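agent> Task received from the user: take the single chain below, predict its 3D structure, and emit structure tokens. No templates, no multimer pairing.
agent> Plan: (1) validate residues, (2) run structure prediction, (3) serialize to tokens, (4) report one or two observations.
agent> Step 1 OK, no nonstandard residues flagged.
tool_call: predict_structure(input=
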Amino acid sequence: MTAADELEDFYDKTVTIRTLLGSDAWGDQWKETANVRCFLDETRTLVRDGAGAEVISETTLTGPPDTAALYTPGSEVILPTRTANVIKAGVADPGLLDLPAHVEVALT
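)
tool_result: status=success, residues=108
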């Protein structure tokens, strides 16, 4: 079993991600990716966004590290119960440690 597979059993939810690609004269441009497996923690947390402002995150999403590029700030994540926006995302890379890498996403 590889380190990436170690967390697979915990990914008990699937979400749809509408990745914000940018904006132009026609408005926001999105790319939709369905059935992304993840784990959701519905604990309210105070986090800092990309500009350093303190904001409240209602949900932390944990998923496979190869999905990190989908979670650009402002993207929408369609959860089982609601739609949330990405505040920030980052990959937890264990480096030389024998621990599984994963992406952590703070959502509104």
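agent> Step 4: summary for the user.
The beta strands are 13-24, 27-41, 45-48, 54-57, 59-63, 76-78, 83-92, 102-107.
agent> Done.
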